[in-house]
Amino acid sequence: MIHVLFVCLGNICRSPMAEAMFRKKVEDEGLSEHFVIDSAGIGGWHQGSPPHEGTRKLLDEKGISYEGMSARQIMDEDITTYDYIIAMDAENVGALRSIAGYGKHHFIGRLLDFVEDDDRDDVPDPYYTGNFEEVHELIETGIDRFLTYVKKENDL
Ligand code: 4NP
Fold this sequence. Notes:
This protein is of the alpha/beta class. 44% of the residues lie in helices and 14% in strands. It has a single domain, classed as 3-Layer(aba) Sandwich (Rossmann fold), CATH 3.40.50.2300.
């Protein structure tokens, strides 16, 4: 099984959107049996909450399910459980690297680093910008490229 964890600051806006969209893409490609997909936040302020209203609205519009999803904080064991830990911005990567320390861990990187033909590297936080459309667009391209990478690396 390929374990994929999307990470942002609060786990209510960006990473749940990425989780729901990636799960849908993997389903559409008939690859669900190969994946365990989840998301988590660096902070635990919204533990147990459903995705943010803006994320829900956008996912509803696109017909993508977020049923049963609730926010949780990253745990130490996530670092070794997940093969790919995909962060939304550089700050998240910094926090993840300090949690991971020098111990054994797999891939920790930024979603938009998979999008080489775009200068933007961080998915802006819509909790502050209010721009969920922009986040959706960036995540759409990011997960598309990321899935291509994962399929190649895992011979899928
Ligand atoms: P997210 O957005 O990291 O995309 O889920 C945020 C949500 C909540 C907070 C910050 C960012 N917060 O400070 O509560």
